[in-house]
Design goal:
It is built from 29 helices and 33 strands. By secondary structure, the chain is α/β, with parallel strands linked by helices. Strands 7, 8, 9, 10, 11, 12 and 13 form a 7-stranded mixed beta sheet that branches. The radius of gyration is 37 Å and the shape is globular. It starts with a helix and ends with a helix.
């Protein structure tokens, strides 16, 4: 087969001096003839994938450079450098590849930029774990030594996911592959930090942050996953100081107690309590104004404060206030000037400041303190509850709210263009249902904590001296000169660079800019290189809704800030890939198949189709492996259709009327469906575009058209097909392959080269997308009626258990005597009829059926059971009466008639007329029986 001999011949030519003289056409003709000899073999998806992907790479079909064509650009959402291919990547990147391949066929200069994200937290965790296996602790290393290990890890494992994407068929311009910590991309990140700091948009301060005790770093709100958890709500008694010496309030609910009860799910933070808070209007606690409570375990005396922040109905109405461990408590603390006691270390252990259980793990302390409080009689009760607990997206550790010195970016002003341009539809979110979510986020945006307590990442360009001064600039030398103006006695050894690195998203928010020209951040868009000016703004971004705010929105912010223009026009938001039970696919649940194993089993084309057949934008995909099986069956159907056509003998006979009609019909049907498919693409209804393509190929082309024109078998051998019909069919096949190519690139390329001899650059990946003509609606309508007739006759054979080989006659009821029409031979062939006739009167003792408003009869003298036929017709009559009633109700609805489009109203009226005609015909048939 030519798939086997090309590599050998090519290799020989490359290693020989005769390569330049080798006749390429001769080579192609050898390959073509060899391939025709082996077409009958089963299609090998693995062989085709390996062969054609390498061929596309060798011919630079994925490569893009600026030229006079209109660009179509996608930048890949860079997967974490730690990542391996999972089902979410499969879905996301298949959609991107479909869009980029179609754009290429539409004549655009298609550019899909790949790359990876350095993923600070995840990568550092991987490297730390690797070092532990070698008996090395991160704390025993210098920063420089640790980074050497990190870069070694990245070089060894960091490109795995991109190689896996190639197995999927991703047609990225691999020469443009970028990494967010490349030197020039990192320099751009530093330039942005310095620029925004100088614009007074970046500041440093102590704030409450989400702290990851395992990763030992702050994380953003969006990197916290809130999971419903089974928890214990502990009701703890806090004694009231000197309450017995004061007169009691007779009507107070707590008049006979000397304690106040607070409910908490986090008793390990009790040692950090600095107040107890109740509502000013709570009658139960009015007698405690001016009183103090005693914190259990540490016996700290704290004030009982009154604030309308408290929910009167929640719990006991009393709240323990721990300013160091809850953002709302922190705000209460500022308001009431409460001290702050940090009871936990950065590792999630009890701190020295707590005064008890020092060094104990927070969760071990939780169990111990409940036990100790119970023994002291200070636990009133314990309730089992379900509550939301925050977990780190990267390490899965339970998040702790923690006061920490961090760097922040002010978001109130800089984010406005990113909101305005989504609301005014300059940037489109697909589907639109996400606009309200986006609007809510952006209107309630908080300052962005951009610092992370890690070593892997872009180090913050801030420099501190020994007197508390801070300067932001690129180099230590520059910092020394600036700090010396504030501290004349400064020595270089007294300068230290900030230990923190920048949040990974502070790097990737520049992605659509820096992948083309990192220097544009500093030089400005007007002075940007040719690439950025040509490809920016990009066209489509395909990503997940969960990163809509902390990546998509931030890219919009950066785009308007540094290019004065949006980074992309359309944001296609995919859903989550879930299993049949609705659970999100994850390796921890064991419910996620290995993508590469699916590709091995069903072929890349099968998996691509299986993923997208049921994946509407923004809605979750309920994945089942049977979808991939359906995809494999689809490429097998296409392969078999090709083999069928290729196996026909060709004659110079004149084209029959039936074949001429069939060709006219499919040409019209193709044009009709192409318009629909293009409309689906234009509206980003990807699953609809695929399903329309699927039905056009499977139903219209394979199930109907090929059956219409397929030569009849005589004495066990197929008759020849006329050349006119054969040539038209090959053209249809080529058009179909071009429609299929974005979804199924490998099998389409394979068949494309087996259809006929082509030069080395004539590949389907570079073929033009079909252009539709004006669809002939008349022939489409007539064949639709014909298909219903054929289906009715086939159903009749099945109901009556009549052999498909037995010839039947069909009569069509006509008002006037008619000659046979061009559709009749097709009906005779597809139904295996003895004859297709017209009659002006009903046929007695015949099986009757109705298509649209036309009556048909199949005479079966002596073989029809009148009672069974009456039952069948009665059921059909009942159904049509019910259908007519539903249509009449809709048409009598004045609101519907007033607001519906005229074509919808006309459609309903046609339904009414058809139903009325069917009812009349059925009633007449019942009368005749």
């Amino acid at each position: 087969m030519y798939t086997k001999i090309i590599p050998k011949i090519t290799q020989a030519c490359h290693t020989s001096s005769i390569f330049a003289k080798f006749n390429k056409n001769f080579l192609l003709s050898i390959c073509y003839r060899q391939s025709l000899m082996e077409i009958t073999k089963s299609y090998s998806s693995k062989e085709a994938e390996n062969k054609w992907y390498q061929y596309w790479l060798d011919k630079n079909f994925f490569k893009s450079t600026p030229d006079k064509r209109k660009p179509y650009t996608i930048v890949i959402p860079p997967p974490n450098v730690t990542g391996v291919l999972h089902m979410g990547h499969m879905l996301n990147n298949t959609i991107q590849d479909v869009l980029i391949r179609r754009a290429r066929m539409l004549g655009f200069n298609a550019c899909w930029v790949p790359g990876t994200d350095h993923a600070s937290i995840a990568t550092e965790a991987k490297v730390v774990a690797l070092l532990k296996e070698k008996g090395i602790n991160k704390t025993d290393l210098s920063r420089e030594d640790f980074l050497k290990y990190a870069w070694e890890w990245k070089e060894k494992y960091g490109g795995i996911i991109l190689e896996q994407l190639k197995k999927l068929g991703a047609s990225c311009d691999w020469d443009r592959t970028r990494f967010t910590m490349e030197a020039d991309l990192s320099e751009a990140v530093i330039d942005v930090f310095i620029d925004l700091y100088n614009k007074k948009q970046i500041y440093r301060g102590v704030r409450m942050v989400n702290w990851d005790p395992q990763g030992l770093t702050a994380v953003s709100d969006e990197e916290v996953i809130h999971k419903e958890t089974n928890s214990k709500l502990i009701f703890v008694k806090y004694k009231i100081e000197n309450l017995n010496s004061e007169p009691r309030t007779p009507n107070a609910e707590l008049a006979n107690t000397d304690y106040i009860v607070v409910a908490t799910t986090r008793p390990e933070t009790i040692m950090g309590d600095t107040a107890v808070c109740v509502h000013p209007n709570d009658e139960r606690y009015k007698h405690l104004k001016g009183k103090n409570a005693i914190i259990p375990i540490v016996n700290r005396v704290v004030p009982i404060i009154f604030d309308d922040y408290i929910d009167l109905e929640f719990g006991t109405g009393a709240l323990k206030v721990t300013p160091a461990h809850d953002i709302n408590d922190y705000n209460l603390g500022i308001k009431h000037k409460l001290p702050v006691i940090d009871a936990l270390t950065s590792e999630g252990k009890i701190s020295e400041a707590a005064g008890a259980y020092v060094g104990m793990d927070r969760f071990a302390c939780r169990k111990q303190i409940v036990k100790d409080l119970s023994e002291q009689g200070l636990v009133e009760k314990i309730e089992d509850i379900k509550n939301k607990v925050g977990y780190s997206e990267r390490t899965n550790a339970v998040i702790e709210p923690r006061l920490s010195m961090q760097w922040f970016l002010k978001m109130d002003t800089i984010s406005k263009p990113a909101l305005e341009n989504v609301l005014n539809n300059n940037v489109k979110l697909i589907p639109e249902k996400f606009i309200n979510t986006y609007k809510h986020w952006m209107e309630n945006v908080h300052d962005w904590c951009i610092s992370r307590q890690l070593w892997w990442g872009q180090r913050i360009p801030a420099w501190h001296d020994n007197k508390g001064n801070t300067i932001v600039c690129k180099t230590k030398e520059e910092a020394f000169e600036k700090l010396r103006t504030l501290n004349p006695e400064l020595r270089t050894e007294n300068i230290k660079q900030d230990e923190d690195v920048l949040d990974t998203w502070f790097s990737s928010w520049l992605w659509p800019i820096t992948v083309f020209d990192p220097k544009a951040i500093k030089t400005g868009f007007k002075n940007a290189n040719e690439d950025l000016k040509y490809y920016y703004p990009t066209n489509d971004l395909v990503t997940a809704p969960e990163i809509l705010f902390f990546w998509v929105a931030r890219m919009l912010i950066a785009g308007y800030e540094y290019c004065g223009e949006k980074p992309f026009t359309n944001v296609y938001l995919t859903g989550i890939v879930r299993d049949k039970l609705g659970r999100k696919m994850s390796k921890s649940l064991g419910n996620s198949p290995e993508p590469l194993e699916l590709i091995e089993k069903y072929g890349a084309d099968g998996v691509r189709v299986g993923m997208l057949l049921c994946s509407p934008a923004g809605n979750d995909l309920m994945f089942d492996e049977s979808h991939c099986e359906q995809g494999r069956n689809f490429w097998n159907k296409i392969w078999n259709a090709f083999k069928l056509i290729n196996g026909w003998e060709i004659s110079n006979a004149e084209q029959s009327l039936a074949n001429n009609t069939s060709v006219q019909w499919f040409g019209a049907k193709f044009d009709e469906q192409l318009e629909i498919i293009n409309e689906h693409y234009n509206k980003y209804r990807m699953s609809d575009a695929l399903m329309a393509t699927y039905k056009l190929v499977w139903d219209d082309f394979c199930a109907w058209y090929l059956e219409m024109i397929k030569p009849e078998f005589v004495n066990g051998k197929a008759n020849p097909i006329d050349k006119t019909t054969f040539d038209a069919t090959v053209i249809f096949l080529e058009k179909i392959l071009t429609l299929l190519h974005p979804w199924m690139p490998f099998v389409t390329e394979e068949i494309w080269h087996l259809i006929k001899e082509r030069n080395e650059m004539d590949c389907i990946i570079m073929a033009y997308w079909p252009v539709s003509g004006k669809a002939e609606s008349d022939i489409i309508y007539k064949i639709d009626v014909l298909k219903e007739v054929v289906t009715s006759v086939r159903n009749f054979r099945q109901q009556k258990n009549i052999s498909p080989k037995q010839k039947l006659d069909v009569f069509e009821l006509s008002k006037t005597q008619r000659e046979q029409c061009r559709l009749d031979p097709i009906a005779i062939k597809l139904c295996n009829l003895g004859d297709y006739k017209y009659t002006t009167s009903k046929i007695e003792n015949a099986y009757g059926f109705i298509v649209r408003t036309i009556e048909f009869f199949i005479p079966l003298e002596g073989n029809i059971n009148k009672e069974e036929e009456k039952i069948r017709l009665s059921k059909e009559l009942e159904y049509n009466k019910g259908f007519l009633k539903s249509v009449q109700i809709k048409l009598s609805n004045q609101k519907f008639v007033a607001n519906a489009k005229p074509e919808l109203i006309e459609l309903e009226r046609r339904k009414q007329a058809d139903a009325e005609a069917k009812i009349k015909a059925i009633e007449q048939q019942l009368t005749s029986l």
